[in-house]
Amino acid sequence: MPTAPTNVSVAREPRLLGQTVVVIGGSAGIGLETGRLARSEGAEVVLTGRDPQRLEQAARELSARSSAAFDADDGAGVKRFFDDLPAPIDHVLIAAYTRRSYGPMLKSSPEEVGQGIGRRVTQVLEIARDAAPKMRPGGTLLLTGGSARQFDRESGITPAAFAVLPPFTAALALELAPVRANLIQAGFVDTALATSYFADEGAVEARREELRATLPIGRVVGPADVAALAVHLMTNTAVTGATYDIDGGQRLIA
Length: 254
Hints:
Elements: E1 20-24, H1 29-40, E2 44-49, H2 52-62, E3 66-69, H3 75-84, E4 89-94, H4 110-131, E5 135-146, H5 158-163, H6 165-176, E6 180-186, H7 192-195, H8 201-214, H9 223-235, E7 243-246, H10 250-253
Parallel strand pairs: 1-2, 1-4, 2-3, 4-5, 5-6, 6-7
Helix pairs in contact: 1-9, 3-4
C-alpha cells in the first residue's frame, strides 16, 4: 500500500558560524545588507561608516559586535581602527565609496584626474595593509566597484577608475595569499547612494523602468543581490583574484 510523501526539513549549519566579518561602509546600502546576511549566517559583524548616527542605528539593528565611525579615505583612521580591532578576523568587505569627481576629463585638473583614477586603489591598499595581519588564512578581502564598460561624456574618468580594479585585485590576491582578494563590479544597484546621483525622484523612477524593460532579468538589481554574492565569495575558499559582474545582464545589452 503506497504511503503519502512526507516533507523532511534538514537543518543547515550557518555558513559563517564562528567567523568575523568587517564591513567598511556598513551603515547603509550594500554594506548594511551584507552585514545583515552575514549575521544571519552566524557571523560576528563589525561595522564602520562616516556618519556616527546612522552607524549607531545600523549596529543596533544588526547586534553588531562593535562599530567605529571614520572616513575610509582617511589612512590614519583606517590604521587606528585595525590596530584597535581584536584579532582574528575572517573577511573584510570594502563597501565605502571613494569621493570622486564626475564630468568631462578635459575640464578636470591633472590632480583631479590622477586622484580619480588612483584613489580607490590607494584606499584599498591602506585597508589591505592594516587588515591582512589580523586575517585568518582563507578569508577574503572583498572590493566593490562599478561597471567599467559604459562610456559617455559626463562619466569622465569614472570608467577608467573602475577598469583598473580587476588587474589590481588579481595582483593583490598574490600578495595577500593565503588571504584571498576578490572584486564585485556592480551596475546600477537600487540604493540611496545610487539614486542620489539623479536630479530627482522622477529621473530615478525613469531609470528603474528602463532597466525593468531592458535587463535580461526583468528587474532592478538590489543590495540583497550583491550581499548574496559577497557572502558566497566569503564562504567559497577556492575563489581568489576574481572579478564578478552583477548588473542583471546590463553588459550584454549596452
